[in-house]
Amino acid sequence: MAFRFRGQGATEYLVLLAVVLIIALVSIALLGFFPGLSTDTKITQSASYWKAARPFAILEHSASTGTGNITLVIQNTDGGGTFTLNNMTLTSGSTTRSTTIDYTFSPGEVRSVSANASFGGATGQVYDLTVGFNYTSANGVISTQYGGKTLTGKYV
Fold first, then answer.
1. Looking at residues 39-48, what average pLDDT do you find?
2. For residues 144 and 82, what is the distance between their CA atoms, to the nearest angstrom?
């Protein structure tokens, strides 16, 4: 009589494993069926990253299909000194646009910068740009800041 329930533990384990796998498959399928959710998540993550970037943070950004320009609100987030933003590069795929800026940013200073960003997007489409800032520090050292995440948003 003691051996009558030998396989019950293994059976319960397999049933629970099957339930967990089904839940995982349903979750993955739902994310695939709603691609707008993943796009909005990517835009939110990009905005969070760029607001905390150093020494230059991008607080806001918008790209216009009508003018072909992108407007960035940039802040010097490094309290250590003044930086001169010399150049900005925006890359989408294999196309790179470079813009000479030559603005001096005091610690905490915020400026709006516009640049050519005509990468061929239509209104409502997502842009995904690699951003690079070439700058000079207060002591004359020339450096480049590249983002760990792309700058992502929707064309307006």
1. 91
2. 15
- Report d(CA 6, CA 4) in Å as an integer: 6
CATH number of 35-154: 2.60.40.10
Three-class DSSP category at 20 = helix
Is this structure's pTM higher than 0.90? Answer: no
Q: Look at 35 and 93; give whichever has higher pLDDT.
A: 93
Alpha helices in 34-79 (DSSP H): 35-51
Q: What is the pairing mode between strands 95-105 and 69-76? A: unpaired
Residue spans per domain, the chain: 35-154
> 2 by DSSP, 3-state: which?
coil
Q: What is the dihedral of CA 13, 15, 17, 18, to 10 degrees?
A: 160
**pLDDT tens for residues 49-59?**
999 999 999 99
Burial of 84: CB neighbours in 10 Å, binned 0-12, 13-18, 19+: middle
pLDDT of residue 133: 97
- Predicted confidence (pLDDT) at residue 2 exceeds the cutoff of 60: no
Residues 6+ apart with CB under 8 A from 128: 42, 92, 150, 151, 152
